[in-house]
Amino acid sequence: MGRFVAPSATSSRTFRAVALALKLIPREVRNDINRTTRAVVNPLWRDAVNSRALTTVSQKVLAKGARVAPGNPLTLIAASSRRPLSGGLVPDAQARVFEFGTNDRQKVAEYERSGRRSKAHKVKRHTQRQLPWRNDKGRVIYQAAADVAPRITSLWVQIIVRRIYEAHEKGQ
Amino acid sequence: MAIKIDVITDVAQAVSGTGKLADKYNDVSDALMDVARDGDTAGDKIEAAFRDGAKDVTKTERALKEAGREGTRAGDKIEKGLHEGTTEARKMDDALDALGKSGTKAGRDIGDGMDKASQETGESFKTIKEEARSNLSETVSSFRGDAEDIGQIFQDIAGGVVADLGPTGLVLGAGIAAGIGVGIAALQGLSEQATADKEEIIGIAQAIREHGGTFAMESAIKGMDDYGDSIADTKEWWEIFQQEAYSGWEVLRDQANKTGLSMSEMFSGRFGNDTALAERALAKVEDRLKSYTSEVENSRRAQREQGERVTITTKTMEDQIRVTEETRDKIKDHIKEIRAAEEIERARREAIKGTTEAIKESLDAEREKTSGASSVIDAQQDQIQTQRDLADAIKEEGRSRDISTEAGSKQVDLWQQLVQVKNDEIDAMIQSGATAPEVASKYNAMYSSMLSQAQTTYGLSKQAAADWLTQLGLVPPEKVTELRVSGKDKAIADGKEAAKKEEKPVDLTVTGADGVQKQIASLPSDVPVHVGVTEQGTVGMTQAAIDSIHGKDVRVGATEEGTARMTQATIDRIRGHDVRVGATEQGTARQTQETIDRIHGKDVDIRVNVPNLWAVQQALDALTAPRSVSVTVNEVPGRRVDH
């Protein structure tokens, strides 16, 4: 499994230039860059996440609300849905545990419960069975990011460069 | 919190570490120039950035281990919650949230990463280089795809942009450099394309040879199709780079200089899709050619008269003429190509008429139209996200607008983003064809909500908040004097104009004769006003009311609520105005007739409610002529009851 690597803006002149350029250019050009970025990168990112979300749970929890937020830097977003699933799970709040899993799926808990017709009694239940095994690299979203981030980053840099150039050309 | 991944990190650090703002322009300009100039090595550089960015193994690993432990602890918390028999979902959420937060540390190797990570990601490093290259052509073609959209947006917003860009170093440096870079990459893309073309042609040749030199249609068609696909997108603006050995940008710039065309004219003449623009460029080039030729004639004459001194000038001019002629020919060729492409497109449309392909195209066209509305939604999503981020930032770090502090700087950044996405939303609304009043009211609402948010968040006065928003780039609504008027608005505006011309009566509801008179006085004299006086008091009062309304028609409605005599008395005493009497038959037909008989000199409207046709006939028979009858039948559904 690949690991997602986010390069530091301080590590390359290119990235630093892009970060600075976004700060310095006029709002119109920046908006235009953002608009183009959104139009071009959104489908890439959605496809990447969807192609990694193979289980129903992944599709419902992690792939929901996959989109990009153009800005400085460009941010890839997923699992942003705040609409609770039928069981009450809110993807936005609880997605991370599905992305990174748990260390102890076997964990059994004993707790007391009481029903309307029964006295309080103890029951033993697996409490983390619904979660995937721990995976530091992430299972769906971060994997998708590892797949496409280089492509997206490169595309983003080039959109910025090209848009600035076009602003120049238009004004010529 | 949704899962969010920044594609690059340490942006704040990179931005803040460069000294004064003014000094940064050169920096950006140089660096962007590098990106573009090294078109062929840009991939390597981006790869290196990813690789160099990964240094500190231990730090990252520690973070990951910690995250793992956190995960377990969070699991324990869930369990504890169950132990205590709690049903509070909130606690569960907290526990999951804690786990989630630790999860942010996992999954990515932040900036200063590691060798190990680079081994693991070796594969993606390899692809980075390739991506960086192929994306250059992708970038260009993606603009092509929605060229109309983006072109339009650009025309709208880019007017005068360059003048505002500040130091021209940035603009010129980045712009020209970008051109070169994109050009070089496109050249690379094309050589790949050329190779692909060659392969396809070899494939066709192979197919022909395999069939003993006879051109079997069915086997060749496949080859032709593939070839067609492979050359389908070669009619692109970077075609030039295939033909010229050196940078296409330089060629273009040179041609532009020598022909006296602007760069954009040059582009539309040689690579655009618009015949009209290309023809305009052609006309300009031909003009220029004429003037060059006559200049050369003049200078030749001068040369003859004055000797060697003007030779150089003539040579330069001849060079200009040569380039201009070449350019003219190329533009002519290009116009032919556009025409041919248009013809092919027309033939293709004809051929696919009525097929699913046509359906697909119209679907695509429709989708294209709705993309504006979809960007409104995108912008709204961004807004929501930014608002959440802002709320989170304020919750974590307290309110601050002081940009010298990290918290303040972050919050101001978020505000700037917020302003930006709000502006985006307005732009998207306009793009999707919202009417000017819709846009204006949205803008006003947006502005006042931002204003009050700024006021309440940072305890500012209204004026201070407004000033601050202006600094952030939000134009106060009163400054928005010009909103784009779409076709719909214009129609509405025209409609209003028409309504005025037709002089439609104005309905007013005013109580009291004084009020009515005041209203009438406030209206332009050419607007007709119908005043309806309802007689609710005595006849005297009604007459007084009528008398006190000057200069306008007054219609009096006398409702017979008492006896016929009273009604007649009312009518008799209202002078100089039409009185319409409504007689409601509440008793028998005879009574109604009596009522009518006793009202003299006026039309009487009778409304009769009767249960069946026979009763209607009876009612009508009982009334004396003349009369006009209109019957409205309301059928009441029911069911037959058998006794």
Estimated structural class of chain A: alpha+beta
Report mean pLDDT of chain A, rounded to a whole number.
82
The run of helices and strands of chain A is EHHHEEHEEH
Note poorly predicted spans of chain A.
none
Mean pLDDT of chain B: 56
> What is the assembly state of the chains in this entry?
heterodimer
- The geometry of chain B reads as extended
SS element count, helices of chain B: 26
Biggest sheet, spatial arrangement of strands of chain B: 3-4-5-6
**Number of beta strands of chain A:** 5
Secondary structure: helix percent of chain B: 55-70%
Structural class of chain B: mainly alpha
The N- to C-terminal Cα distance of chain A equals 49 Å
- The neighbouring-strand order within the major sheet of chain A is 2-3
Residue stretches of chain B low in confidence (pLDDT < 50, at least 5 long) are 36-43, 49-198, 211-250, 481-511, 533-538, 551-563, 575-587
Strand content of chain A: 5-15%
Layout of secondary structure:
The complex is a heterodimer of chains A (172) and B (643).
Chain A: E1 4-6, H1 13-24, H2 27-52, H3 56-62, E2 67-69, E3 75-78, H4 91-100, E4 108-113, E5 121-126, H5 141-171
Antiparallel strand pairs in A: 2-3, 4-5
Chain B: E1 3-6, H1 11-16, H2 21-37, H3 42-52, H4 57-83, H5 89-105, E2 108-110, H6 115-120, H7 122-145, H8 147-158, H9 161-164, H10 168-210, H11 217-231, H12 240-243, H13 248-259, H14 263-270, H15 275-306, H16 311-352, H17 356-397, H18 406-431, H19 436-458, H20 462-472, H21 487-502, H22 513-522, E3 530-534, H23 539-548, E4 553-559, H24 564-573, E5 579-584, H25 589-598, E6 604-607, H26 613-622
Parallel strand pairs in B: 3-4, 4-5, 5-6
Helix pairs in contact in B: 2-10, 3-7, 4-5, 7-10, 10-11, 14-15, 15-16, 17-18, 18-19, 19-20
Give a description of the structure.
The complex is a heterodimer of chains A (172) and B (643). With 172 residues, chain A is of the alpha+beta class. Chain A has five helices and five strands; from the N terminus they run E-H-H-H-E-E-H-E-E-H. Chain A has helices at residues 13-24, 27-52, 56-62, 91-100, 141-171, and strands at 4-6, 67-69, 75-78, 108-113, 121-126. In chain A, strand 4 and strand 5 (121-126) form a beta hairpin. In chain A, helix 2 (27-52) runs antiparallel to helix 5 (141-171) and helix 3 packs across helix 4 (91-100). Chain B is mainly alpha-helical. Chain B is built from 26 helices and six strands. In chain B, helix 10 runs antiparallel to helix 11. The relative contact order of chain B is 0.04. The chains are: A alpha+beta (172), B mainly alpha (643).
